[in-house]
Design brief:
Elements (H helix, E strand, L loop, with lengths): L2 H7 L5 H10 L3 H15 L4 E8 L4 E8 L10 E3 L3 H9 L3 E3 L21 E9 L2 E10 L7 H31 L4 H7 L2 E3 L1 E4 L2 E9 L18 H25 L9 H8 L1 H12 L4 H17 L4 H5 L1 H15 L14 E4 L4 H9 L4 E5 L5 H9 L4 E4 L12 E5 L4 E4 L3 H8 L1 H13 L5 E2 L5 E8 L5 H6 L5 E5 L2 H4 L7 H13 L6 E4 L27 H6 L1 H14 L6 E5 L5 H20 L9 E6 L8 H7 L2 E4 L1 H9 L17 H16 L4 E3 L9 H7 L4 E4 L4 H9 L3 H13 L3 H23 L1
Parallel strand pairs: 9-10, 10-11, 11-12, 16-17, 16-23, 17-18, 18-19, 19-20, 20-21, 21-22, 22-23
Antiparallel strand pairs: 1-2, 1-6, 2-3, 4-5, 5-6, 7-14, 8-12, 9-13, 13-14, 15-16
């Protein structure tokens, strides 16, 4: 390439040339097509393409091309981060590769016909923080594009940004006006990649849960029984089903001892509800319409309440009406509800929704768009309901009853899967047997490759997880999250109700230590029945130990319940979340002593001397750690919150999630500082956050002196294998190298070297 050409390339696309393209175009499609032809011509490229971001699905779609097969336009789609195009958009930086097909990020699309084109150059199209698309050129000659070409394409993309953004907007409006047919949607949604949230596998019909339940509206073609007798039979069937569902749920979720369907029963016992429906039927209204009319009256009444807890109960009315209407339908078969043995697709779920879905034996859950609150995922995981978060809003248009195959281990969804796909997944039982064999290979104690003892414990959210923890030989319960008996109830549990839950916890963990974290609410864990004021920044508000110290009645009841239930526990530890100062810890510790004294006055048996510890989650603790280490009996590092507060980043916020970096130098060095300080005082310290099951992070933790890890039970086998694969000397060298690095780039280089060395070690061992 000549020097003259280099000088000219950066100035190719001026405003006048762009205006000419817009003026000459007949429509948006022809404009985009002219753009790619012009760009390819300017750069002497054999291929030019524009991919635009579809906001509805968060996918990049091929919208125009010169050189690739014309039939691929509109058909090739990829998520941000997927393939070389998706990677360019994710990084919002140019990407150039002279042998693109060999790149590990390269994704092959058979319909594109791009096999001959070796050289690849892409630049993102953006305007401010708005992501618009990606501009791509390709050439069959290897290493064809140079720095001057990158400069030119960046200049072109900058000039195009505003005009292409408008074109994308207009294309979006056209799609809104002309919705795709069901056939087109099914073809488009045949395969979806989502985020694996709760592992599992299911093949079942789809059942859509929409914000407004369709059973509360007129349903074309629905065949209902309409008489008063039919209504009374449906009402009785509904009551019987609710009793059965409650019994099933209590067996699966002992924490739900109070009626999950309490509101349903209270409504059905209210004579106004039943009488109004019967009166409407007597006046000639068909039974389904009468149920809808009265249900709407009650829903409006509840929603008009100033009390948010009562407003939330409108959902119970909807659920109850849906059940009655379902039992009024003709030909409903043997199902107890429209979602029995179905894969539920929904745009929003609350903990109460998950509990109801569990009671109705749903096969799986697909949550469309957005994220999922941690306690919803935890409840689903504890109840073993496979769950995937998927970005495609079009999933909410999948017809009820369409066959869905979900692989929640990998986060993949197949709509109306082919026979080949079904056969492929028929072998999943063999994979599950392999997983069972790994679980059976669990040893009662964990050791590093050079024989150093590591204590491996389990995090428990719900009592239903205890059998798995015991089966996988957990050496203790390193973290029992005590908030879930509060979350699954509709009213604040009493001291006795809490004691019954904790008693079952200690009965099933006899002989091993149990560390109970006191109530950790606030942030994303909201208890509507407490009617607390709305906060602008809930993660920085009245949560965790702050809430308990302000509401001593709640704190005292919980402490009394724990001490009573654990009276005969071999080793009971009570730890406080979100401790930020010595004052917090002393006040919380004093509350434990006062609770024990009050139980003694009441002549109630309780644990005489529980260990009292602190969760390390707040950056402020670093400056007073010596004083805390002298006071506390033990420590547990909650890395999820610690990283969030250290880096001031909400990892559930997609706009800043990339800043949530567990391997950030400040995180690594702070963790090392914490462990060194606590070990000087010879106090036990464990890690119970998500990094405790991260295969790259575990060696670092071992290298800085951590000897106690606590993880969700499902991760116990892989964590034990990771521990057994490394010596303490190797772990210490790895930790020192990470601590010496001052940037994320340097740290990534250390990690890459560690992975390579680890692979080499495993290869030698296998040989």
């Amino acid at each position: 390439m000549t020097e003259k050409k280099r000088q000219h390339l950066s100035l190719l696309y001026d405003i006048s040339e762009l205006s000419a393209l817009v003026a000459d175009s007949k429509d948006i499609d022809s404009f985009l097509q002219q753009v790619v032809q012009s760009v390819a011509s300017h750069l002497n490229a054999e291929v030019g393409s524009i991919y635009l971001l579809d906001d509805r699905t968060d996918e990049l779609v091929l919208r125009a091309t010169k050189g690739l097969k014309p039939s691929s336009v509109g058909r090739i789609r990829m998520r941000i981060g997927e393939g070389l195009v998706g990677m360019t958009m994710a990084r919002m930086a140019p990407f150039c590769d002279g042998t693109a097909c060999d790149n590990p990020f390269f994704k092959y699309f058979e319909e594109a016909g791009e096999e001959p084109y070796t050289s690849f150059l892409a630049v993102p199209i953006g305007r401010g923080i708005e992501k618009i698309g990606v501009l791509v050129v390709q050439h069959s000659e290897a290493d064809y594009f140079e720095a001057a070409d990158v400069m030119a394409l960046r200049a072109i993309a900058a000039q195009l940004a505003g005009t292409v953004a408008n074109a994308r907007l207009m294309m979006g409006l056209q799609q809104t006006v002309r919705p795709r047919s069901t056939t087109e949607l099914m073809e488009r949604l045949r395969f979806i990649k989502g985020e694996a949230t709760v592992p599992g596998f299911a093949l079942a019909p789809a059942a859509l849960l929409k914000p407004e339940d369709p059973l509360l509206s007129d349903v074309p073609g629905a065949d209902f029984r309409t008489s008063a007798k039919a209504y009374q039979r449906a009402l009785k069937a509904t009551l019987d089903q609710l009793r059965q569902l409650q019994e099933q749920l209590v067996r699966r979720l002992p924490e739900s001892a109070a009626l999950i369907f309490e509101a349903h029963h209270m409504i059905l016992k209210d004579p106004r509800f039943d009488r109004q429906i019967l009166n409407a039927i007597k006046l000639g209204m068909p039974a389904p319409d009468a149920v809808r009319q009265v249900a709407r009256q009650f829903i409006n009444l509840f929603e008009a309440s100033p009390d948010p807890y009562i407003r939330e109960k409108a959902r119970d009315i909807e659920d109850l009406a849906r059940r009655i209407l379902f039992n009024l339908r003709k030909g409903k078969g043997t199902s107890k509800s429209p979602i029995d043995d179905h894969i539920v697709i929904a745009s929003q779920l609350y903990p109460s929704d998950v509990l109801r879905l569990a009671s109705e034996s749903v096969a799986g859950i697909v949550l469309v768009g957005g994220g999922v609150t941690s306690h919803v995922a935890i409840i689903a995981r504890s109840l073993k309901i496979p769950m995937i978060i998927a970005p495609q809003g079009d999933l909410l248009t999948v017809p009820d009853g369409a066959q869905v195959l979900m692989d929640a281990d990998a986060g993949t969804i197949y709509i109306d899967p082919s026979d080949q796909i079904r056969r492929q997944f028929a072998g999943r039982n063999r994979l599950r047997r392999d997983a069972a064999e790994k679980a059976a290979a669990m040893q009662p104690q964990s050791f590093t490759a050079d024989g150093r003892r590591i204590h491996l414990m389990a995090n428990i959210n719900l009592l239903g997880e205890l059998p798995l923890a015991r089966e996988l030989k957990a050496e203790g319960i390193g973290l029992y999250r005590s908030e879930f008996p509060f979350i699954v109830r509709s009213v604040l549990p009493s001291e006795e109700e809490q004691r019954l839950v904790y008693a079952r916890l200690f009965e099933q963990t006899a002989g091993i230590p149990v560390f109970v974290r006191t109530l950790d609410i606030g942030g994303d864990k909201i208890l509507p029945y407490l009617n607390l004021p709305r906060e602008a920044n809930p993660e920085l508000g009245l949560r965790s130990i702050r809430f308990l110290l302000k509401h001593r009645d709640v704190f005292d009841q919980q402490l009394r319940a724990i001490l009573r239930a654990g009276a005969k526990a071999d080793q009971l530890g009570i730890m406080f979340p979100m401790i930020s100062s010595v004052d917090d810890f002393e006040a919380a510790s004093q509350a434990v002593h006062e609770a024990a004294a009050s139980l003694a006055r009441d002549q109630l048996e309780c644990h005489p001397s529980p260990l009292i510890g602190a969760m390390v989650e707040m950056p402020s603790v670093l400056a007073v750690l010596d004083e805390l280490a002298a006071l506390a009996d033990f420590f547990s590092i909650g890395t999820n919150d610690f990283i969030q507060y250290m880096l001031a980043v909400d990892r559930t916020n997609e706009h800043v999630a990339g800043y949530y970096q567990p391997f950030h130098p400040s995180i690594l060095r702070s963790l090392s500082q914490i462990v060194n300080c606590v070990r000087r005082y010879q106090k036990p310290i464990s890690v119970c956050g998500e990094v405790a099951h991260d295969g790259d992070f575990i060696p670092f933790l071992l290298g800085i002196g951590i000897r106690h890890l606590s993880v969700d039970p499902q991760f116990l086998p892989t964590v034990q294998q990771t521990i057994a694969s490394v010596t303490i000397q190797q772990a210490e060298a790895y930790a020192q190298a990470l601590l010496a690095a001052s940037s994320l780039r340097e740290i990534e280089a250390v990690r890459e070297k560690w992975r390579k060395n680890r692979t080499d070690r495993l290869t030698v061992t296998s040989a």
